[in-house]
Amino acid sequence: MSQKLRTQVAIIGSGPAGLLLSELLRKAGIDAWVIDRQSRVHIEARIRAGVLEWGTVEALREAGVGARMDREGMVHSGFEMCFDGHRHRIDLAGLVDKKVMVYGQTELTKDLIAQRLDSGAPIVFSASNVQIDNVTSSAPRVRYEQAGKAHVLECDYVAGCDGFHGVARQTIPADVLKTYERVYPFGWLGVLVDRPPVAEELIYANGARGFALCSMRSATRSRYYLQCGLDDNIENWSDDRFFDELEKRLGSETAQNLQRGSSIEKSIAPLRSFVAEPMRYGAMFLAGDAAHIVPPTGAKGLNLAVADVRVLARAMIQSYQQGNTAYLERYSEICLKRVWKVERFSWYMSQLLHQFPEATPFERKMQAAEFDYLTQSESACRSIAENYVGLPLQM
Fold first, then answer.
1. Using one digit for the tens of pLDDT, what is the confidence trace for 315-352?
2. Is the whole model's pTM more than 0.90, yes or no?
3. Where does residue 12 rank: exposed (0-12), middle (13-18), buried (19+ CB within 10 A)?
4. CA dihedral 347, 349, 350, 352 (to 10 degrees)
5. What sign does the dihedral 145-149-150-156 (CA atoms) show?
6. What is the number of structural domains in the chain?
7. Residue 112's domain is classified under what CATH number?
């Protein structure tokens, strides 16, 4: 027999999107449960993005989880782009008077989980057989099992923040859901190492040997990426081979500051662009990777998820506190306008910074011409800067 439970908002997924939504709602006095199929240990061990738009920074502060981020995060006023060894800095602060924060998503997730547990608000880990029912009615519910016991969580709304492979999007009927996808013909080989970064700011590099990214998680921990084949595997890449290749892609001037070290994490991730429409179905709302995926070239995945839940939180707060459901009804429309603009920017950066195996000599010349144009056009650089720091949140 199932145990019946009740909440106002059932949130599926305890990544940054679901956790941030739960905390924004809790601050407004709205009850929410968070349910995740993974264990806390697994969730807190996932290595993810690290560049936060300033709107994301402000949202985390609003939710009361910005203290450690403000102490340990690194504020960046620009980043560098490198093409065939020629470097050009995008001056974010000078071009658009905004900055970004470098703070690892892993640490951010830990902060959100810790606050949730400290508050005593409900969060369920290691849930199995999660199902969403009755979302087109006035009585939606979430079914799940934990430790062999069945539970039914009744609610007003369901927030599907459970990622690309989660159950939420699969709940929408095929004749309602439309999806758009671009799968890229390469992946990113990422290495995490306890060594100081090669530079004070991120470096995005493209050359004949392919893409490379020099990023960081702290002043003593670096995250490096190399473009690799989709059929490649980690066993082919010793630490020495990785750093040998990274040096070649960066060029001698930049590579002379590179400090090698033993990897503490190494993985290969495929790249794709993906959008699902609509982002609302009845009383269920998709947010984050459940609704869209962007290639990481533009540093937008986490930030786009945060933008979704900022819109959703405000819409739910207006519904509960003012009885105004207009923004909830327009949630999908509002979010998708921003989603497609962010998809465009991430696609643009990916086109510019990678070597595509099917590219013609003409297309490679176009890449080179685009980069040369950037180095000479303040307007072109400003366009990149305003997208990189984050487009305005519109409601």
1. 999 999 999 999 999 999 999 999 999 999 999 999 99
2. yes
3. buried
4. 120
5. negative
6. 1
7. 3.50.50.60
